Amino acid sequence: MRLKDKVAIVTGGSRGIGKATCIRFAKEGAKVVVNYASAADKGDIASTAEQVVKEIKAVGGEAIAFDADVSNKAKVEEMVNEVVRKFGRLDIMVSNAGICPFEEFLDIDEELLDLVIGVNQKGAFFCAQAAMKKMIELKITGRIIFTSSVSSIFGGELQAHYCPTKGAINQLMKSIAIAAGKHGITSNAVLPGTVITDINRQQLEKDNPELQEYFIKRTPIGRLATPEDVAAAMLFFASDDATAVSGATLVVDGGMSINLQ
Ligand code: NAD
Ligand code: RM4
Prior knowledge:
This protein is an alpha/beta fold. The chain has helices at 16-27, 45-58, 73-87, 110-137, 162-181, 201-207, 209-217, 227-238, and strands at residues 7-10, 31-36, 62-67, 92-95, 143-147, 186-192, 249-252.
């Protein structure tokens, strides 16, 4: 119960890495807000978020689903206010929502570029800003955690819109760590490698399974990291073990990105 009585928002909590983080945080005693965006995301997304809430409640945890597009500043502020109204506090903001519509560099138009920057970069900014404001107001020594990526360091042929947003998140995280320190708030980022989720399932399981094989072959631990592996790193940053950790990046990729020789 490393997060007993804490309240956490996890953006993009309905699937993949965010879902695993919601479930892990709830098992550790946190009250969890499973954020999702019905308008921004195709599919039966509301019931997907509700399913995460059900899974958490089934094991005695507490959770609610909250529909808010993170690229909409007003919606993000509404979410933070509503969470504090309901639970009385906000201790942890995990800014995790992200998209990566794989596309050739020359085919990325302005609309797609704006979309990816809007969700990944501006969304992270809005979530961190709204959370930090509230934490200061309530005198809570909270935690802001970002899902960045190894793509913040390395490029990707079909990710010329995406990788720069992850680089920006690292710099945002560090700037916030400096601004937040005097309030006892920390800011850190987890950098997953390739994790099979809905964001890349089509690419790695259908379009280009050879790429998945290549990623596995170059991963020293012999398998890709899972959403649960990433959630464990999120928990570290959120827990009391990380009280003196701020401005840090933690790669969770089984060693994939350092294996060049
Ligand atoms: P996913 O597609 O399974 O989950 C994405 C989540 O973001 C979903 O819950 C979706 O509803 C939500 N979302 C999308 N647009 C949103 C918006 N506008 N507002 C609020 N929520 C929105 O993908 P995932 O792999 O779990 O991705 C989660 C994060 O992890 C992303 O930031 C992604 O860039 C990052 N990441 C993923 C990998 C990987 O290999 N899967 C690697 C590194 C980093
Ligand atoms: C990650 C990384 C993965 C990719 C996902 C979409 O940051 O680049 O390899 O599959 O994004």
